[in-house]
Amino acid sequence: MLPTLRVTTTRAFPRYVRSIRLNSGPSERDESTYKEAVHILGSGEVAPPPLSQPPPPPTLTARITPAFSKSVFFDVPPADDPLLKFLTTSIMTHGHGSRAAKMTSECLLHIHTLTRAPPLPILREAIDKASPAVRTMNHRNSGKNVMKPRALSERQRTKQGIKWILDASEAKPGMTFPERLARELIAVIQGNSSALTKKLEVHKLAMVNRGGLPSRV
């Protein structure tokens, strides 16, 4: 009977030992690991993760629009404008009318670029300022030369003024002829053009020789 009891006890002992190990509390190794973790973290309680903050409300920013300067609008001169046509004819060489018309258009564009103003009134004023009112003609009377001033018509005045402006534009800086002509027209408006000097000399000569005019009855 004892041998049978010994065999039964030997078979049942490992099963009881396994159940004791499973039901036992934390071991010393587990306690040491827990204490080490608490020492590293500095607190016995694990702090809950911080709640995610709600995103800040969107701020309304005022949309800033750049302050553009007021646009300049001006009337486009007609293609058959008498003054522009006369200027184009004066510029034209060897019968190249389309080339002269293109130069006139580019000249107006340069005037607008340099002044930011309507170009046609500037062109009219410049030609009017450079146009003389009289001219002096040389007459031979009784073996001597007599200078007699003569009044000019509107067409003659305009033609002479354009001629002086074209001659003076050759000395102006610029890569192209339309740019030089535009600078000369602006110089006439400003009062520092050689065309105005020629006009003043002609008027002075006419005043000096005003005695050659026919006397009134």
Automatic annotation (TrEMBL):
Keywords tagged on the record: Ribonucleoprotein, Ribosomal protein
GO cellular component terms given for this protein: ribonucleoprotein complex; ribosome
Keyword Ribosomal protein set for record: yes
Ranges for domain Small ribosomal subunit protein uS7: 80-210
Biological process per Gene Ontology, one example term: translation
Family according to the record: Belongs to the universal ribosomal protein uS7 family.
Name the UniProt record assigns to this protein: Ribosomal protein S7 domain-containing protein
Native organism: Crucibulum laeve
